[in-house]
Amino acid sequence: MSDTAQNDILLQLEGVNKWFGKIHCLQDINFSARRAETIGLVGDNGAGKSTLIKIISGYHHADSGSFFWEGKKVNVTCPRDARALGVETVYQDQALAPHLSIARNIFMGREPSGGGGFLKEKLMAEESLKALSNLGLNVKSSETPVMKLSGGERQGVAIARAIHFEAKLVILDEPTNALSVKEVHEVLEFVRQMKRKNLSVILISHNLHHVYSVADRIVVISHGKVLTDVKTSETSVDHLSDMIVSGTLGKVV
Ligand SMILES: Nc1ncnc2c1ncn2[C@@H]1O[C@H](COP(=O)(O)OP(=O)(O)O)[C@@H](O)[C@H]1O
Ligand SMILES: [Mg+2]
What we know:
- By secondary structure, this protein is of the alpha/beta class.
- The protein has one domain: 3-Layer(aba) Sandwich (Rossmann fold), CATH 3.40.50.300.
- The protein contains nine helices and ten strands.
- The strands form two sheets. A six-stranded mixed beta sheet has the order 6-7-8-3-9-10, sandwiched between helices.
- β4 and β5 form a beta hairpin.
- α6 runs parallel beside α7.
- The chain is globular, with a radius of gyration of 19 Å.
- The two termini are 26 Å apart.
- The relative contact order is 0.17.
- The model has no long low-confidence stretch (mean pLDDT 90).
- It binds adenosine-5'-diphosphate (ADP) and magnesium ion (MG).
- Magnesium ion binds next to α2.
């Protein structure tokens, strides 16, 4: 690999193993993410996708293997460690507080320090609108309670919260679940927008069309192993689907 390509790598996992009791959930996983790269992570239920991203986001610790960040070996033992590196995760059961405003939700648990109450409110309002418009989402007021938003807009708030705090890598675990067609388009547009902002994104979805339409590269996990790691342009939705169903590389496209 050339030096430039090497420098481009943000995250690299090598030989990661994870056991849950007798279940060998992740088996010698190698996984990498380049800067500004959108990676689709797909595989059948129980394949190990969420466990893999929980290792990246510090919720689980691998039983063995190495974790490199910007070329340096790091030890990620808790979510705070991962956040400090610039990893932000938006979970499928994203915990937004429905009665609180957009601004409160974006800043939840990370309100700016110092300054008076009024100044703080103003700052949070301005920053929230900016964070949303960076995603291409324009809302009338950052004071709107989240429960008044559509499902797609709620995902936008969750993603804006993730990227507002200097994330370099944003992980989305099934963000298009239970959304309308229009909302799915909104969320996929957020993903494209993140790429334009040079953020790396890992997108997990069981909908291969969604992944295929935004990812630069697709990694298929099957029974805890990487079955293939392929450029999107070198595969097809049908081929991905065959691989997931059969658990083998299947026919060549
Ligand atoms: N906390 C846990 N304790 C025990 N087993 C788990 C735990 N989390 C996941 N598993 C098991 O690990 C395997 C992979 O799960 P998961 O990573 O959630 O898969 P996916 O996200 O691809 O559907 C499954 O067999 C699941 O039951
Ligand atoms: Mg999962």
